[in-house]
Every structure is written in C-alpha cells, then in structure tokens.
C-alpha cells in the first residue's frame, strides 16, 4: 500500500501586485536626529566633550605666546635672507651661512667628496667634515694615502671609501668637491712625473666636469710651488712667479698651474662655483716620514737618534703651519664667497737652523 504527501499550502491565494506608498510622516526629518541624539545619552557625551575642550584651551597657554612675536624680528634678518645667493638656497638655507644656524633649525648635512682623502691633509679634513655632520665620500688610489688614516670612520653610515684614480671619470651626486688628489712631496711626485702631471691635469678636468654636471662647489688645493723660485718674499697672490717649465719639479709645479687655469676657465666659461687654495708648508700627525720634506726629515732623524742634516748654510727661510689650521682655512674658503686664489700658510718665517734648534730642541747634533 503506497503513501503520498500532498502539499496544500498557498494553492488558491490571490496575489495583489498593486503598489501602495507608505503614508507621509510630517517633521520626520527633524525628529529623527533629535531621537538619535537623545537615545543612549549621546547628547550628554557631546556636551561633556565641548566643556573639556574649552577648559583645556583656556587654562593651558599656547606655545606661540611664549615665542618672539613676528613684529619684533629685526629688519636686517629678512634683508640678510633675501641676499643669500642661489647656491645657498639650492643646498640648504643655513648650510653655507657664516653665522650661527638659527635656533630651532637643524643644520642640513652636506654630501661631500674628498679626493685624496686618505692622505695627510685629506684625512684631517675628513675628520672635521664628519664631526660637523656631513656625509663624506673619500676617493683615493692609495699611492701616498693610507687606509689607516681613515680606518676609524669605518662603520660610520656617513662615511664611504672608494679606491679610484681621479684620472678616470667618476659619477657621484654631491654638493661639494674638495680636490686634494696629487702626490705633494718631491720624493713621490718625481717617482712618476708623467703620472703626476696627468693627475693634476686630467684628474682636475674630471672633477671639474663632475662639479659642472651635478652643480657642486669645487675647491682646488694648489701649492706655493706655483710661484717657482720666487723673487718676491713673501709672495702675494698677485705675484705670477719665477718658474721653470722644463725642470725636474715641473711635473708638479706646472701641473698645479695648469689645474688653476682649468679651474678658472670652468668658472668663467661654465659658471662652476670654484675656490683655489695655495697651500704652504704644513706639518702634523699622519705625515709620511719618508716624503723628503724638511720637517719630516728632521723628525725621522730625531726618532732614529741621528744628527739633523741642514743643507747649505741653514739660513734658508720657510714658514710652517699646523695641519688643523690648514683644514680650518680650507673649510672657511669653501664656505666663503671669494674665489681666490688664496695663500694658506703661516706669515711668520724662520731659518732651517732656527727650526732645528728652537722648534725641535736640537742644538748640538746638527750637520751642515
């Protein structure tokens, strides 16, 4: 006997498809927000928040009330700001100003490349730039420079070291270029005269090209040797010198003179911002004892407990400056507004005998 399920729901229910809108309720748009605010005490919380905010801004003094009003700033401040050259505005408003950075404005660190930065003077310059907060890229081929001079900066995120010869082009993004790359002592620059003059000419040309491409300020470290065998004592920057273009030292002397010429031509012809420093005798830590210069010779002989050797009658005069003073002069020249050339040295001169007797404390063990 079979069974079956029979669905009997909704069989004959009539369906009304006609639309009847809801009746319009007057003031509904007004009463609905009111009901929303009154429900769950929302209005009370809003009023409490307004009261708290009013009390806070009334009782707590604003930070601007304690600062100097705008009207009290001297007129000269704005005049000085308006006279800042375009180079200053391009790098940072307070980076190259000679005065102090205004309170509340942190000095923006520059990105600086120092060629020959592992050498005697270059390493001390790197120390100063790192200490003031700049990012420094040292470029050196280690012909006379040494890694030990900059090794204490390894691990510093603002320090980079590139083993590179400036005779080959180099592409970097920098704000300033200190061009110190070149052997400076007779022993070293006479070792390979052609390489020395290529470093002075081609290397300077490459660094000037980099300065032109990236809009960087360029400082050339020239030398007092551009005056040759001078007939004027002391030498002024306007003195053209008494030079020998075919001598054994000419690879260095004439190379630096050519480097100065290139620097000024890039300044006049391409608008590159340049500075030229003519460095005189310098001494200090990290000097090479075998560079053949008088101070290092005396120091090396003194350390070996040998008699000091003075050539000639010992009445030749020289001036000597400490390396920290030279670095200070280079930085001031770079930050200043004058192109140069500028002599950087000690205005006081003394004889080689005085250097041996008075400065180094030797009087009896001197060989003339």
TrEMBL record:
Signal peptide span: none
One GO-annotated biological process of the protein: UDP-D-xylose biosynthetic process
The protein's required cofactors: NAD(+)
Compartment list: Golgi apparatus membrane; Golgi apparatus, Golgi stack membrane
One GO CC term on file: Golgi membrane
Mode of membrane association: Single-pass type II membrane protein
Keywords noted in UniProt: Decarboxylase, Glycoprotein, Golgi apparatus, Lyase, Membrane, NAD, Signal-anchor, Transmembrane, Transmembrane helix
Catalytic reaction equation(s): UDP-alpha-D-glucuronate + H(+) = UDP-alpha-D-xylose + CO2
Transmembrane parts of this sequence: 42-60
A GO term, aspect molecular function: NAD+ binding
Location (main, coarse): Golgi
Pfam families listed in its UniProt record: GDP_Man_Dehyd
Record EC number: 4.1.1.35
Catalytic EC class: lyase
InterPro entries noted in UniProt: NAD(P)-bd_dom, NAD(P)-bd_dom_sf, UXS-like
Keyword Membrane included in the entry's annotation: yes
Family under the similarity heading: Belongs to the NAD(P)-dependent epimerase/dehydratase family. UDP-glucuronic acid decarboxylase subfamily.
Protein name, as recorded: UDP-glucuronic acid decarboxylase 1
Organism the protein comes from: Glycine max
Gene: LOC100783463
